[in-house]
Structures are given as structure tokens and as C-alpha cells.
């Protein structure tokens, strides 16, 4: 198995994940609409609970939107042929790291360094 073949595998994985997220989002929207309909029902008195569900769904969708953005960025990097290269040192990111973290744009060493440098600034920066 060559690296190029593995990258194709990761690309297919990302595209499948993208479809799954979009599909899940549709389901979440339907669920949200159903909850809103229940709220209009005067018999329905668990408003607090549905507000919580509303919040959970919208934050879920926010996380999904962010993941779609990461997937799109990774796919763009594949199109331009720089996917799998560390943006800092330019060396190839090991395949096992890419398989575990397909959005990784840095090798493990640079990601750790980057995380240390940015820590204290914007909290909880993802360790890409
Ligand atoms: Zn590096």
C-alpha cells in the first residue's frame, strides 16, 4: 500500500463523513421542528426540557458546521496536493497520525509546539 493510495482512502473517508454530517443535520432539523410544534401544543408543559434540547441541537449543529469546514479545508489541501505535509516544517505527516487526525496540518512535534505557543491566548485551541 503506497502513501498515495492511503491518501485516497482518507479522502473517501472524509467525503463519507461529510455526507454523514449533512444527513445527521437534516435529522436534527426535523427533530427541532417537531419540538417547536410540541411547544405550540398547550398540553405540552415541559418547556424547560425542550429549550434544553433546542440548545443541545443547535450546539451540535455548530460542532458539525465546524467539522464540515475542517473537512472542506482538508479536501482543498488534497486538491492542491499539500495534504499530509506539515505547514511548519514541510515534512510528510506520518500516515498513522493522518488516519487518526485527518484534519491535521502539522506533524506531532510542531502541533505540540504550536499548542504550547498559543496556550494562554485563545483557550482550548484544537491541536491540529
Ligand atoms: Zn512539522
TrEMBL record:
Keyword Zinc-finger: yes
Pfam families given in the database record: zf-dskA_traR
PROSITE patterns associated with the record: ZF_DKSA_2
Keyword Phosphoprotein: no
An example Gene Ontology molecular-function term: zinc ion binding
All residue ranges annotated as the Zinc finger DksA/TraR C4-type domain in the record: 83-109
Keyword vocabulary terms for this entry: Metal-binding, Zinc, Zinc-finger
Residue intervals of every dksA C4-type zinc finger in the record: 86-110
Name of the featured protein: C4-type zinc finger protein, DksA/TraR family protein
Organism: Hyalangium minutum
Amino acid at each position: 500500500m503506497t502513501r498515495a493510495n492511503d491518501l485516497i482512502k482518507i479522502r473517501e473517508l472524509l467525503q463519507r463523513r461529510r455526507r454523514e454530517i449533512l444527513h445527521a443535520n437534516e435529522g436534527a432539523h426535523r427533530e427541532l421542528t417537531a419540538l417547536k410544534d410540541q411547544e405550540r401544543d398547550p398540553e405540552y408543559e415541559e418547556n424547560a426540557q425542550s429549550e434544553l434540547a433546542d440548545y443541545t441541537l443547535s450546539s451540535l449543529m455548530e460542532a458539525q458546521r465546524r467539522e464540515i469546514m475542517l473537512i472542506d479545508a482538508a479536501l482543498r489541501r488534497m486538491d492542491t496536493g499539500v495534504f499530509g505535509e506539515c505547514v511548519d516544517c514541510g515534512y510528510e505527516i506520518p500516515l498513522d497520525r493522518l488516519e487518526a487526525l485527518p484534519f491535521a496540518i502539522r506533524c506531532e512535534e510542531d502541533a505540540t509546539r504550536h499548542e504550547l505557543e498559543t496556550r494562554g491566548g485563545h483557550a482550548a485551541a484544537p491541536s491540529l
